[in-house]
Amino acid sequence: MRYPVYKIDAFIRQSVNGFSGNPAAIVPLREWLSEEQMQAIAAENNLSETAFFVKSSEGIYHIRWFTPTTEVDLCGHATLAAAWVIRNELQDLREIIPFSTQEAGNLTVRALRSNDHETPLLQLDFPARPGQMINNPLLQQQLEQALGQKVVAICNARDMLVELENEQALHDCQPNLTLLSQLDTFAVMVTARSDSESYDFVSRFFAPRQGLDEDPVTGSSFCTLTPYWSDRLSKTRLRGWQCSARGGDAILQLEHDRVLIAGRCFAYMKGEFSLPGDSA
């Protein structure tokens, strides 16, 4: 038996001439594989995330996300990429694509209107994950040692948010991943106010404990970054740039306990794969 697979770049930067965004592998299924099989496929793909989904009789897509080493509770870029596949390959052209998840509740992706010359925008509707500010001199010292930069503020949600002095400090940051992996957190997002008029803030995302040294673009991080910068900048509509080597853009809006995260996708590759032991 052979299974379809798509490699989609999510949260691409239209202003950049070259590959950008975060690649995700998307695997539509008619029925579920075992967790062991899905984890093995994700390890074989060796991307930050592989997403699997199965459509229910009610038209809802149940989605699960796997890094090369573990299943995660929420992933933005792979959900955006899955919605692109559902609309463009599976021809489900509903304005709103509904998803259900293992732990993050119900999610949706809306297709937004855009100019004809632009790649269409897809908008995630995700739960806000505001963090709690932390005043811990010892933790600040550990973070400054791990990041090699002065830490301005620390905010803890599922992931730890760390604000640096300025955008240049964020670009210059070369973290000690061994030290970061020793911190009691799923991942560390590092952020600063943007120097550019094009963006409100910039960020990077490190998850060495999950097998991801630096994630190119992390949709779920905006669930915490958006309420954080909304409070800091006194505005509910924001533009963020995750300034990894590939980089990615997100258009953000805070609506009470939800974060709307819009981005664009580029379909790089599609194909098929088989599992070991299956007949060719």
UniProtKB/TrEMBL annotation:
Signal peptide: none annotated. InterPro entries: Phenazine_PhzF-like. Pfam families: PhzC-PhzF. The keyword Isomerase applies. The keyword Isomerase applies. SUPFAM superfamilies: Diaminopimelate epimerase-like. It comes from the Bacteria. Keywords: Isomerase. Belongs to the PhzF family. This is PhzF family phenazine biosynthesis protein. It comes from Thalassolituus hydrocarboniclasticus.
